[in-house]
Specification:
This protein is α+β, with helices and mostly antiparallel strands. The protein folds into 2 domains: 103 residues, Diaminopimelate Epimerase, Chain A, domain 1 (Roll); 96 residues, Roll (Diaminopimelate Epimerase, Chain A, domain 1). Helices cover 18% and strands 40% of the residues. The protein has 4 helices and 14 strands. One of its GO terms (molecular function) is catalytic activity. InterPro entries: Phenazine_PhzF-like (IPR003719).
């Protein structure tokens, strides 16, 4: 019987919160797009990762409704679990490293799926936002302390697949970092933390804490 690892990715400093991620270590047990889409929908996490080659770090990322060439919190979580120096995604090779309590990945902004980055003037505005109707993928953000690079954010996928709000979204953090051109310390959702740093070659590092959250059966 296959067991699926469940992780919380981008946990806060107290080890709480983070975005739940399912990782299927033996992806060969779910061959084909339909089997993977069905499992991702049944699990109901914002993303599920199928590991097709653990030594090479070859992964396949699914939302409950579609495949993603790249996504941030699945890559951070898979890198932590597999403890590999890189992951091979459909978008390209994602470098990975461990640094104390943080796991970091390095990726190109153009690999991230399109997001609408919507700036607000005050973190309280972000906190008060209602759930938008399905359609547009919105990353709402505001400076909480601009000089220190601190950001308050919430993410609304708008996919209509049951995931109304993402607790922590690495790809959107990557895009915001590329737009602003500076390192960020992002508080997202109920209390998740994402750290980012732009690199000289145009890539962006995204890092966070990962905690195990048990296993489930498919």
């Amino acid at each position: 019987m296959t067991h699926i690892d469940v992780l919380r990715v981008f946990c806060g400093p107290d080890g709480r919160h983070g975005n739940r991620l399912g990782v299927v270590r033996d992806g060969s047990r779910f061959p084909g797009d339909e089997a993977r889409r069905a499992l991702a929908a049944r699990l109901g996490y914002s993303e599920t990762v199928f590991v097709d080659d653990p030594e090479r770090g070859l992964v396949d990322i699914w939302t409950p409704s579609l495949r993603l060439p790249f996504a941030g919190h699945p890559c951070v979580g898979a890198a932590w679990l597999l403890d590999v120096p890189e992951l091979v995604t459909a978008a390209g090779v994602v470098a990975a490293r461990q640094d104390g309590e943080f796991t970091w990945i390095e990726a190109r902004p153009e690999w991230a799926p399109p997001r609408t980055l919507r700036e607000f003037q005050d973190p309280d505005e972000v906190d008060r936002l209602p759930l938008p109707p399905p359609g547009e993928w919105v990353y709402a953000w505001a400076w909480s302390e601009e000089a220190a690079g601190r950001v308050r954010a919430r993410a609304f996928p708008g996919r209509g697949d049951g995931v109304e709000e993402d607790e922590a979204t690495g790809a959107a953090a990557l895009l915001l970092t590329a737009r602003l051109g500076r390192a960020l310390n992002i508080s997202q959702g109920r209390g998740s933390q994402l750290l980012t740093a732009p690199q000289r070659d145009g890539t962006v590092e995204v890092g966070g804490r990962v905690e195990p959250a048990g296993t489930v059966r498919p």
